[in-house]
Amino acid sequence: MDLIPAAQGTRVPVVDRAGHAAGTFPVHRIYCVGRNFADHAREMGATAPASKAERGAPTFFMKPADAIVIDGNIPYPPATQQLHHEVELVVALGRDAPAGIVATEDAHALVFGYAVGLDLTRRDLQNAAKAKGLPWDTAKGFDCSAPVGALLPAAAAGLSNTAGIALTVNDATRQHATLDQMLWSVPEILHELSKLYALRAGDLIFMGTPAGVGELWPEDRFSARIDGLPELHGRIAPSAR
Hints:
Elements: E1 11-15, E2 21-26, E3 30-34, H1 38-43, E4 59-63, E5 68-69, E6 73-75, E7 83-85, E8 87-93, E9 111-118, E10 121-122, H2 123-131, H3 137-140, E11 146-147, E12 152-153, H4 154-157, E13 164-169, E14 172-178, H5 186-194, E15 204-206, E16 214-215, E17 221-226, E18 232-237
Parallel strand pairs: 3-15, 5-11, 6-18
Antiparallel strand pairs: 1-2, 3-4, 7-10, 7-16, 8-9, 8-15, 9-12, 13-14, 13-17, 17-18
């Protein structure tokens, strides 16, 4: 017998090509890719590789599954005065990876679908942690830090490598790029993640953000888009605390 009430699992809505409800996707884990666009790496003060051959290893961090927000209503988080937006492609895995390392040519078979999401960041906390050489989990893995749009199954999405990705805030464009500017592709990221973790059905991977990240404030409205995927609209509400 459970001694405390069981927490409800996080689920993301799934839609078909026409936008009709087609079920829900139960979330297992959220993996995030850091510095996957060279222009964003440079705006964060990092040295960006001159070519894919000089990439080194990708950077990963995680968010808790219950950081997902599906209704777009984001309370301004506590303990920060510098909330930043980062628009990203979100990849949803629909099956467990086989034991061992996933080959890049086999990676797409794991993918259930795609969505657009935001990796919200308490930038001041991240910068303070970086300056001291400390982990920056509190800057990334906080409540409501992972708003995500509806998932579209991969077969329906037909996602192009050159699809545009963009974010507007209060109708002004902040971020804009194409997915082929990612340093690490979806199959390459799944291959690299499988060296570190047992990938499971229900996993979400936030694939990194292009340049143009910036601040969000209460009452700001945002719209995140990737060509061919359902849009994500929302607003920043006053702090819940």
